[in-house]
Amino acid sequence: MYRKIKYSDQELAKTLYKRTLLFLSVILFVPVVLFWVHLIETGYQDKAGYFVPLVVIVLLIAAGAFYLFRLYKYYGLKHDNWLSRKFLLIETRQLFAKLVISRGMFDVSSDDKGEYISYFPLIRIKFNYSTGQLFVEQPVDGEKYMDTFTSGEFNKLIETVMLADLQITEFKKGVLVSTFAFDPIKFRLQLSDLMPTKGVVNILKGIDWKYDKFYNMVVAGNVGTGKSYMLFSILGQLLQITKFITVFDPKRSDLASLKYTKALEGKVFSTNLEINEQVHVFYEEMMLRSAKMEKIKESGKLGAYMDFNFKPHFLFFDEFGAWVEMNVNTAFGSDERKTYDVAMSDMKQIAMLGRELGFYIIIGMQRPSADSLPMSIRNQLNFKVVMGLPTPEVGKMVFPDSDKLLRPLSQDLKGWGFVQSGSSQVRSFFAPEFTKGFNLHEWIEEMDSKREAS
Ligand SMILES: Nc1ncnc2c1ncn2[C@@H]1O[C@H](COP(=O)(O)OP(=O)(O)OP(=O)(O)O)[C@@H](O)[C@H]1O
Questions:
Q1: Domains of the chain: which residue ranges?
Q2: How remote is the CA of residue 230 from the centroid of ligand 1, in Å?
Q3: Transmembrane region positions (predicted)?
Q4: Quick one: CATH architecture of 186-450?
């Protein structure tokens, strides 16, 4: 049910607090008054007999006031039930009223009886607690404050005060309806929820990596933010789709250990030389497919790789920045440098041409910069993820067109960050959750066997 925001909502919490205390006082005073009447009727003379219940009541009310205050402040943060939702609704209605009033987006007139509110914008809100969404109807009513709503300015304020992410905005007759994700954890997927299909890799509820459309991915993030886990969740899903996966991990961290799995045997590389060579192998396979597709198209057939029953190939390149750094310092003209130069040039070609041919790159790195991630590759990364809170420089590098304020999502939980699919809004999100005791190799084998079984 939609709730209308009213002028008086600016004090909603205080008003409800006072009313609850008043109610509590009445409930407590009634038996005391009856007790006093009884004392008077029985001719009781000791003053303390009258005084003590009064003190007890005042103490009870003070304790109740304190308890209610703490309940309102802290209960909602730790619980998810009808009471915490009531508190959230109260808080939100108050926040919205304050937003309108503090910006003077209402009119006051006066008559013989005094001042009254002659215009207050008709804003209505509704929560869907199970999906973690907030729907906000804003007026498109021709009034002078309308532009603040239609320009998206009000939506930005909502994002800031509610720590929410704008998902979609729809214009309907007389109203603008904006949908916000206000509780990112509600959109988190568990490993068992991951149901990848051809062309679709799950990231969170409602957002998938549709690699045929938003080809090439980058996952950036500092040490300990959950970058590796995010990459695992993608790798496991891709193994259900295709066996053509190559993994590079020049720092020999968690991904490198996957060479010991049956699923990725002979497909994981970590030495500099191996990586440089294997980039070229991947590139050659892509060019071979290009030639095959050209041949098919000679007959006038049209389409992309999947239309001709070719399978997608994925290149997982973790610690891409470290690979660049290791190589740019090698001597010009040395064999190592030559293979790197070829590999880097191949990477640029794969990033550019791979989409049509079904050859995709997933780059993992700590801090993308102009030096570590060449522009020609950066411009071809269409699905972007930053784990943890990025520095302003990294934020600008990964999401250059977004002016969204990025805020930390959780102090206690790991595996949160920000995601942008194509040129859509940047969203805060939690990566798919890995349960405690999870074994990476067993899971990878299981995902691989799912593909083989199907
Ligand atoms: N999606 C997740 N589900 C459950 N736990 C997670 C998730 N992501 C991160 N964590 C927790 O955070 C820790 C650090 O994550 P991870 O190893 O992925 O970080 P990283 O950024 O790759 O750092 P490093 O470069 O040191 O590997 C993990 O050991 C795990 O306990």
A1: 1-95, 104-182, 186-450
A2: 8
A3: 21-38, 50-69
A4: 3-Layer(aba) Sandwich (3.40)
